[in-house]
Amino acid sequence: MIQTEKPLFMILDLLMPEMSGEELCRIIKENPLLRDIIIFVLSASDDLETKVSCLEIGANEFLVKPIHPREISVRIKRFMRMIDEFRNAPPVLSTVPAVDRPIFVPTTLDKDKSHGTIDVGLTSQDSFARIKAKYGIYKIETLIGSGGMGYVFKAFDEPLDRFVAIKILSKRLSGSAQFIERFRREAKILASIDHPGIAHIFSFGEEEGECYFAMQWCPGGSLADLIRKKGRIELLPSLDIILQCAQALEAASKKGIVHRDIKPNNLLFDENQHIQIVDFGLASGEQMSSRVTQVQEFLGTPSFMAPEQAQSSAVDHRADVYALGITMYFMLYGTHPFEASSAIEMVIKHASEPFPPHNDLAGRIPKAAYEIIQKMTQKNPADRYQDYKTLIDDVDWLRKQLLSMSQWKIPRAEKQSPTPVLKGASLFELLSVLFNQSVSGVLTVRWAQLHKKFFIRHREIILFQSSQPDENIWSVLVQKHNLPKDQMPPPDEDLETSLNRLLLEKTITIEDFKTAYRKVMKAALMQVFFWPVFEGEFYSANIEHDAFASMRIADLLLEAARSLINPDQIPERFQSDLYVARTPQFDVILTSLDIRPDESFLASRLDAEPITLKTLQLLTGQTEEKINRFVYALMKLGAVQLRTAEERRASRRVDVAPATPTIGYDSIPVKEIFSPKTEKPKVVEPVTSASITTPRPAPVVAKSDQRTLSDESFVRMEQQKSEGKLEQEHNVKVAEQIYRLAQEKLAELDYWKVTQLCRQAIKNNPSESKYYHLMALAYASHPRFGKDAEQCFYKAIEVDPWNPDYHVDLAKFYIQQGLPNRALSQCESALKISPQNAKALALLSELSLQK
Fold first, then answer.
1. Is-contact 227 233, C-beta < 8 A?
2. Which of 557, 618, 669, 798 is the most buried (most CB within 10 A)?
């Protein structure tokens, strides 16, 4: 409703059903199309932290109830007057930094225009302009961005049921015939180039005096976004991007078109993660109207501009080659080759300053790659690549060399046991045992003529093999149109050979393959749950090579418990008066599960003891079957136990370790093959894992000790020592597993989850400094938690004062906070510990230059 009505003013209560007022305010303020809405937040609580949090995310007022209606009325009227004054204010200059803003130089001015630099960025009037809900057949969704000539919106094409990008000429420029012609020319350029690397245009139109055109929607974001997210891009994907750009620009140059503003912001990713070049508003070419090009000329973006482009508008495709070379440098190193504080200084440095020398970044950027960049960015256009074909050949040659040196390796099973270690007649029970034992090997399943194999490594399935034609990965890729049918590999060619050959030939992309393979592998396994007859065997083996697609067994078991397994499999023991008790592995297992919001609420209720299945039903309002299924999955994963009232009372009376979960090889119909003489199946010792409770052994008394076992106090003391040592070792293992999960979440930029996991790790092992350090890095990513980050950094240094990396990272944090003196002090501390520390020396040099 907010997006449709676009109200001018809103009052939100902090406590609302389903979503808090604070969360709704954050969502509104993050939407560029809605952020101008004035928001009052009401609350009965006068909590300072809540008030500051709401104001920081964009709330205009925070009012404490009870509040008189007259006061609200006066406050609203005051804001209305402010809005009216703001609307009537004269235009202000754009806040875009001068170095990154496209330079706009007038060469021929109308008589009624003043001389000087004209800024065509957003003004206060533009920011409050009400964009129409629909342009032609296109329904406006959200604002994507704005540029020199107008806005770009995500829109929905209703007749064809697809999303498009709508570019709308700024209202301030709509009255100029020259700018309208320039805008129309950009649309014509897009329409004239038919290449998969250049965004397609669909239509051009006019709506109440506003010109617009619709073009291809690219949901993958820009290359600039990717660099900001990752810091830098590895060599092989960088070469792929440069290759795609060069091929697209070659098609444009054949039409006599020079883009003149190649930069990461103008390189977008479509739904297949292929590059699309956009924003031809600055393009020039032989076929263009001289009347338009002589009115006013955009020169481009200084950070990526060729020297000749800053001196004259007469440029050819070699200017785009230069900008593409700077873009390649920016991808590989994460920084610009030249640093400047103004546009003019940047232009001068591109024209006169020598290019930075080769830095291989610890061997990640070979000399051959740097030589390509150097040739693309020569000051003299005659020294650069004279045509795109030569550039494409050099980039493609280097790419093939890298591919031949780093082939994708398919996981293999080495030293596989000749006979199965486990057998089972239930896939759910068999997977639960494998999860709890955390072993590696090959799981074979069959029903009649259907046979499948799954490679398992430490609670993850990383590879599968199937005889079913519909589970052939290449057939699936053909159906998805990611692989031409005539390029389908022969049946006798193994997966690794086929994959590397197709990647080298650039027939498929590794991203398409990974996505399709993961989906097919999951579907192949989930299908087994529906088999009426199941026979499973597990062979222990060492799995070599890393996985490129994996599924966590825990998530599979939870998904199967939700609906796939037969309700009859849930034992009769699941009665409403049974108590649910958490095991020590509960937190570790739960944080690794992909649980739904309703299940998260259900799991949070398990914090309180005593609690029964019936109590859970009353607290959560969920059905008995749903609760039983979820608890059954947690029980099979070893996260919870079910106890009767007597068992619970006994566990409270006796101070012993928690019982080992009743999950093992005896819980399913399993036969031990290695020892056929024994009647009872031998239980295979579990592989060490932080998720399995270690049984506490009886105390061992040395023979040489003169005390006897009848000395109860001595026995009790020795038992407590043994138990304490085992418990400490167990806690360390749990903390390490949680730390690994936190590192994965940090790579996924899920900072909130990182802080939660680090707290759990610290709770289990507070003497390890790296947990505090990782939590500090997560806090440092958000400006609101600067104090928390600083405290965590100092705690890590307190636990381990001899680690120079902690001081270096704290120095980087202080630089981000604008505290150079503190950063300098931390660099000096790091150098006292390690005088030759490269990171500290680099930071020290940077701080000296800033000073």
1. yes
2. 557
The C-alpha atoms of residue 171 and residue 168 are separated, in whole angstroms, by 9
Q: Are 204 and 154 in contact (CB under 8 A)?
A: no
Q: Chain-centre distance of CA 115, in angstroms?
A: 47
* Rg value, the chain, Cα: 33
Crossing angle for the helix pair 751-764 and 769-780, nearest 10 degrees?
Answer: 160
Residue range 2-87, CATH number: 3.40.50.2300
Please state, in angstroms and as integers, the Cα–Cα distance from residue 187 to each residue in 176, 184, 220, 283, 797, following that order: 17, 5, 22, 11, 58
More confident residue, 294 or 561: 561
**What CATH topology corresponds to 731-850?**
1.25.40
**Neighbour count for residue 308 (Cβ, 10 Å):** 18
> If you write DSSP's letter for every residue of 255-322 in order, what string do you get?
TTEE----SGGGEEE-TTS-EEE---TT-EETTS-HHHHTTEEEEE-GGG--HHHHH-S---HHHHHH
Beta bridge partners of 38: 9
Q: How far apart are CA 99 and CA 344, in angstroms?
A: 8
| Fold adopted by 103-216 | Phosphorylase Kinase; domain 1 (3.30.200)
Angle (CA) 263-266-268 rounded to 5° is: 120
How many C-beta neighbours within 10 Å does residue 665 have?
A: 20
Q: Taking residues 373-383, what's their average pLDDT?
A: 94
**In whole angstroms, what is the distance from residue 548 CA to residue 408 CA?**
9
d(C-alpha 524, C-alpha 468), whole Å: 9
13 sits in which H/E element: strand 9-13
CATH top-level class of 570-663: mainly alpha
d(CA 248, CA 29) in angstroms, rounded, equals: 37
pLDDT at 707 over 70: no
Please identify every residue annotated as catalytic: 261
Residue 362 has a pLDDT of 77
Q: Average pLDDT of 9-21?
A: 86
Secondary structure, 3-state, 819-841: CHHHHHHHHHHHHHHCCCCHHHH
